[in-house]
Amino acid sequence: CLAERRAALDALLGVFQAADVEVVSRAQAAVAGLGDPRRCADPVLLAAAIAPPPPEHADEVERIERVVARATALRSAGSLAAAEAAIREILGDIERVAYPPLDAAAQMVLGDLLEERSAFGEATERYTVALERALAALDGRRAARTAVRPGGVLRARRRPDAEATLTMRLAAALVRAIGDPAELVVEYQHVQGMIALGRNESAKAREWFEKEVADRRALDPDSPAIGSALAGLAIAARGEGKLAELAELAAEARAHYERTLVPGHPEIAAAIDREGAVRFEQGRISEARERFEE
């Protein structure tokens, strides 16, 4: 566990050494995305029975793990195309060494990258493979984290509700089986909130996002992810016709992003744009213009 955290830190530092403007703008969020090494003291994690790679493949697995860590760092820094290229380049090597924990990690990173560019079909396939490999490796934590992802993807693809419901039930069972770790619970809550929004169930979405905001604040009050949860709450408020609350939540999300991210970060720009759209809905045209001009 600690070795993985160290590898992730080293990879991110390597990305920062060749940083461009885009990477610098996302640096704070990238650092926030590093796993907390204190969680390596989790008894459930320490008890995980994950077999090491075969001795003849140990060096190759270590090399590929460094590439996966670098791809993860590139993604966190906003270099999505470079991250995807790095992962795809080693897929053949991963298949050759046939070490399930490594395959699960790489497939999950690739699934995340595909989801971010809305390639939902292949993202679902990659998440499915990642889940299969994590279960084969008896890696409960990675299996739970992976199982949470497809629920939101299935909704984005407008697949039948039964598929998303079954997927999220599996995710809930896996999360419970490893002791409901808080960092996975909040991911589960966010996906459930997004699913509820997709179903136009604004009240249910509000419940999920309110839980997420409270739990993320307890985990880390400076996490940029709180801004995403607040934005979800704002969309739920719009669905309930509560425009005054919508405006308050949009402003709160923007303020949180401005406090926790570097100036010029894309999330701040998106939050300002959302504020402008809210002002426009309220008929406050001059204020909307000010937001859009920012």
Keywords:
single chain; 294 residues; mainly alpha
Describe the model:
This protein is mainly α and 294 residues long. It is 78% helix and 0% strand. It has 17 helices and no strands. α8 runs parallel beside α10 and α12 packs parallel to α14. The radius of gyration is 20 Å and the shape is globular. The N and C termini lie far apart (43 Å).
Topology:
Layout (H helix, E strand, L loop, with lengths): L1 H16 L3 H5 L1 H6 L10 H4 L11 H19 L3 H10 L1 H7 L2 H17 L3 H17 L3 H17 L4 H17 L4 H17 L3 H18 L5 H15 L3 H18 L5 H16 L3 H9 L1
Number of helices: 17
**Low-confidence residue ranges:** none
> Helical proportion?
over 70%
Shape annotation:
globular
SSE topology string? HHHHHHHHHHHHHHHHH
Radius of gyration: 20 Å
Summarize the structure.
With 294 residues, this protein is an all-alpha fold.
